[in-house]
């Protein structure tokens, strides 16, 4: 769980080579990387800049006389800072640097750079590299720093699948300005399944423990109840079970889209890039945020024992919450999706609704009301309505400010909270729709029934959570919201008998979960005692600190 020092080799280094190095370059590098003869990482973020890639300070200046790039980090803030696996493990890196050719700044480009000797593993001359120190989590990964002192690499180490620099310094542009960002888009498109998995682990622990833990009574009786029988406990955990499934389904779709994008880009078609960038930006932000919230609720649902490291939930939280920051800080990425939404509104206003992509076509279609009792399709229309309402409101606010003479960037900043709200609602609609589609495709009738219950729970929970938007313009009445609440409570109770099976179906082994509370056999109490006894503090009855500090204090006459 604490991560693996070679994780980024597989997650980003190899994918960056696959997507950005030419076939000829990959003949030299890819096989070696796949065999782990060389170990690499993805070095982009700097001490001074992570979000704003246009301001990266590391430069790669082309020297036409030697046909080399000179890598340089001119000041402290230019040091690469954060890349996983960079500090100690990697001997190579894909380095993102601002490329300068014939004094022209051509923006961020990726280079394969050797950092350490392949035999001795010592850092090479001109390179300063090390570990950035302990973090909230991921402490088995050596996130690192990296500086270059006019460090030279051959021209052919610029990754040249999409753009090139010829020996004489002629620059051949890529087919899309942001094609060099593909390694990030890849990770973002995998994050929904990855985060769904973290949420699932925490829920497995909390749900299993909630069937072992007995406390209090619902009705007066002989035996105290399992805490999972409390409606509040179900409300804390079951909507997150639905989300863990929903995120996984949404993630499968974005992974498929990314694979399709890779194929299309190779044939010169970059039309999917903007859509996938917008979609994955929103999805990574909503999913990581909701996952962190869900894991924290799972921890609290385990009461005091949830706070113990024996629960292992705090470890899962630490790793998962990193996703709110890495691969694009969540607010920054929500604002990327918002750009796409505002553009869509502008297209509609210009009478070009026909040009809208399938995921935003609903922004042009007004719905007057819904009959929620007719089922999930009507809920989808309600989600569309709230997302459309907020997207139009936020866009109009921005466009009005623009019209009043504000600079574009200032108008954007003044509308940004509303814009991020629109992005979240649009993404939650997407998650609900992929959930619905995925459940429809399930062939096994018994499985389909249980997943349909989860889907119903999800749409009722989500709609209630967005109620302010739906009430704002009278789209939903208060009696409709009462219906949603009743449905929510109905599905909490309906899911209760299947709750343990739903989490067991994820098939985490005890070794994976590392949780005393979430043990498959349910023997929690005896193992908590054994776990406590194994604490280093219990190795001796009397600690050395007693002689050193306590006794002098206790014997003092003051
Ligand atoms: C098989 C498994 C695979 C993967 C598993 C991965 C994760 C699994 C989940 C859990 C993890 C499990 C275990 C853990 C193991 C390891 C940890 C895993 C990963 C951690 C590694 C972390 C790595 C990093 O963090 S790398 C650094 C990431 N950095 C960022 O994300 C920076 C964010 N900033 C940006 O991306 C950009 O600066 C920007 C905000 C997008 C702005 O860019 P820029 O200034 O250049 O552009 P403009 O704003 O001017 O926009 C112009 C225009 O371009 C459009 N645009 C921008 N980007 C893109 C793009 N990528 N594609 C297409 N279009 C793009 C933008 O929208 C504008 O369009 P319009 O003009 O039309 O509006
Ligand atoms: C666990 C972990 C692993 C990482 N692994 C890697 C790696 O392998 N390789 C790598 O290169 N990097 C890596 N990173 C770095 C990571 O990608 C960046 O930290 C991340 O992109 C955020 O950038 P930042 O640190 O510059 O945040 P900042 O941009 O400084 O964010 C600070 C605050 O400013 C706000 N903000 C910034 N810009 C805007 C804006 N335009 N509009 C509104 N608000 C804004 C943010 O929302 C945030 O609230 C990793 C980070 C972590 C935590």
UniProtKB/TrEMBL annotation:
The protein's location, in the record's own words, is: Peroxisome
Question: What GO biological process terms does the UniProt entry carry, in alphabetical order?
Answer: ascaroside biosynthetic process; fatty acid beta-oxidation using acyl-CoA oxidase; lipid homeostasis
| The keyword S-adenosyl-L-methionine is assigned to this record | no
Q: Which domain of life is it from?
A: Eukaryota
Summarize where FAD binds, as residue positions.
Answer: 45, 84
Pfam families referenced in this protein's UniProt entry, alphabetically: ACOX, ACOX_C_alpha1, Acyl-CoA_ox_N
Annotated coiled-coil segments of the chain:
none
Provide the GO MF annotations for this entry.
acyl-CoA oxidase activity; ATP binding; FAD binding; fatty acid binding
Q: Which GO terms describe its cellular component?
A: peroxisome
In this protein, which residues make up the domain named Acyl-CoA oxidase C-terminal? 377-555
Catalytic center residues: 327
Biochemical pathway = Lipid metabolism; peroxisomal fatty acid beta-oxidation
The Acyl-coenzyme A oxidase N-terminal domain, residue ranges = 2-39
Q: Which cofactor does it need?
A: FAD
Q: Where is the signal peptide?
A: none
Provide the alphabetized UniProt keywords: ATP-binding, FAD, Fatty acid metabolism, Flavoprotein, Lipid metabolism, Nucleotide-binding, Oxidoreductase, Peroxisome
Q: Please list the residue ranges annotated as the Acyl-CoA oxidase C-alpha1 domain.
A: 181-342
Report the sequence similarity comment from the record: Belongs to the acyl-CoA oxidase family.
Q: What name does this protein carry?
A: Acyl-coenzyme A oxidase
Give the source species: Caenorhabditis japonica
